[in-house]
Amino acid sequence: MFDKWGRFVVRRAWWVIGGWLVGAVLIIGLLPSLSEITSGDQGSFLPGSYESVQAIDLAKKAFPEQATSTAIVVVKRSDGGPLTADDQAKSQALATAIGNAHIAGVGQPLTGPRAVAPNRLVQLISIPVTAAATDAQAQLAAVERTREVIKTQLAGSALSAGVAGQVAQVVDNNDTFTTAFTVVGTATFVLIIVLILIIFRSPIAALLPIVVISVVMQVSSNLIAAAGRLFDFNVDQSLQTLLLIVLYGIGTDYLLFLLFRYRERLRAGVDKKTAMAEAVARVGEVITSAAAAVIVAFLVLLLATFGGFGSLGPALAIAVFVMLVTGLTLIPALVSLIGPATFWPSKAWRREPKGTRFARIGAALGRRPAVAAAASGLVLIALASGVLLFKADYDFAAGFPSTTESAKAAADLERGFPQGALDPTEAYLTTTDGGELTDAQLAGFAAAAAKVTGVGGVQPPVTGTDGTVARFSLLLSVNPASNDAITLVHDHLRGDLHGIAPPGTKVVVGGTTALFADINSANNRDLSVILPVAAVLIAVILGLLLRSVVAPLYLVFAVLLNFAATLGAAVYLFQGVAGHPGVTFQLPIVLYLFVLAIGTDYNILMIARLREEARAGNEPRAAAALAVQHAGPSVAAAGVILAGTFAVLALAPVSFLRQIGFSVATGILLAAFVMSMFLVPSLTALIGHAAWWPGHGDMDRRRTEATIAG
């Protein structure tokens, strides 16, 4: 099929390019943009069966004007001493001034004697932020305007104040994220250009992926937005960055696979048109199978209960499909027209290099496949052992710079209040018969909640509009974003609070800590479902590609082992060497997306070449040696480019971005240089002809040749 397709694309190159461009213009011009289906509300991605979501729904009904979040103004004396009665009066005046400023997106500030720390070192002013969680600009303006009022009101006084809380943290670190993602985008372009220049010594080959994939990214974004509108789903704010890396990662992979095979055919003396047609014929099946594996892995995310993953899957699958179509149409058509000038001004494409590094590696592996299999396998197993020590970390604040106003204000707050005061856990007390809550029920619950393990303080209740619901803000004694807090809420706090509900009432626990506790549960459940289902489906795709049952089994095992090794390496570095309490909770799913799914590309390219060499009549060890010699350069180049893109994140001033950058870069390098380059070829050489059972495609050709010769 792909030989016919290759000839069609080459013969109708201008028609292919024209049709592609017309389609791109229509899609970009007529379909909605990605920003129209983007959401930053993590709670909106959990199903209603989780208690934290039930708390959100209950709060919306009982407190229809409730703020989306709260900013905390932490007031202290500049000399660090205790607040005097006059200082407390000035703090009250500050709260009044903020309210009188009528700042857009901000509700009425609250403070008072209860907001003064027992040691009188700080006083808090709670400011409801009513701007929508998805309206970053409105929240930014609200915090900045609040800070201007504070600066004006406290000028010349003995007091100073800072704004803390999640909203202030986001505002303070907005530039950090913008800078980090700009660096990623720039570094991606630079790495692709520089590395392809080194590989092919041609500016045309280097610029080709930048131009093509930039258009593909815009087309994909609009198609995803249209699908979101059609099927009513939103996507997380991180999707734009993930799209950038996914498309440039796999897009460059597919381009390299084609260019390496195209150059190989040119060196064999074939004309430029025939060379590209044959390249598509030989690599088209590999690219399609690789894309199918990635698409399937992404679509398996639809099984996730956490909607952030569920919507991420089809979005990325759409992007990969567009890149696959591009790799089989636009790229071959362009290169077939450019011809050997694609490699200009270098003339190295005309001659086959002798004694290359990959030829030596392949020869060594062919001589001693058992040694190569044992060494590469032991490396991966040793790293994978770190998974046993894995702990998820939900504390984003700890990973941000400590020099921002929000970070300093949070540190000041802890001088006088429990850490949980920055982001209280909300306990909603409601009657079971629809009647109003009594004073005795409110007082009884408040007194009992104060004695619950892990609760450092209980704020006075706020009663809802109809009197059937009351909100209690519980100040945890530990950092509300820490692993300890997540475990506390998940294992003990919820059950304890349920147990102390007065007769005729029930308790629903919400807030950020409770939300992340539920996300933790959802993550654990999702990974336990997603990994095995994806493994089975990828094995099926490999089986269809190879017409084999045996090879897909050890290929999938290798991919899963590489995934575990990558996660284990992150655990050893960040939990062990760096002493972090855990690794970011997002890491396993990010590794699934980039290491397991995209890393499968390298396996498919290598095993397809192994099969090709076996069908050419080579014995298993010789086939492994030749496969490494010929497929090794494209696997290595693709791996270095994708790993380098992520490695730049390791320089970001945010902890969880550094973790993601290091971990994915490590995983891609392990996939390219350990799994695909050594483990898979050596296992195939050791298993021999049985690797292709029951098809025995490698034997069929030699039997046919022997029959003809006889």
UniProtKB/TrEMBL annotation:
UniProt keywords, alphabetically: Cell membrane, Membrane, Transmembrane, Transmembrane helix
Bilayer topology term: Multi-pass membrane protein
Compartments, record wording: Cell membrane
Occurrences of domain SSD (ranges): 206-337, 556-685
Main subcellular localisation: membrane
Record's keyword annotation contains Transmembrane helix: yes
InterPro entries: MMPL_dom (IPR004869), Mycobact_MmpL (IPR050545), SSD (IPR000731)
Residue spans crossing the bilayer: 12-31, 180-200, 207-227, 239-262, 283-309, 315-344, 370-390, 527-546, 553-573, 585-605, 635-656, 668-693
Keyword Metal-binding assigned: no
Similarity remark: Belongs to the resistance-nodulation-cell division (RND) (TC 2.A.6) family. MmpL subfamily.
Protein name as it appears in the record: MMPL family transporter
Protein's organism: Actinoplanes oblitus
Lineage, highest ranks first: Bacteria, Bacillati, Actinomycetota, Actinomycetes, Micromonosporales
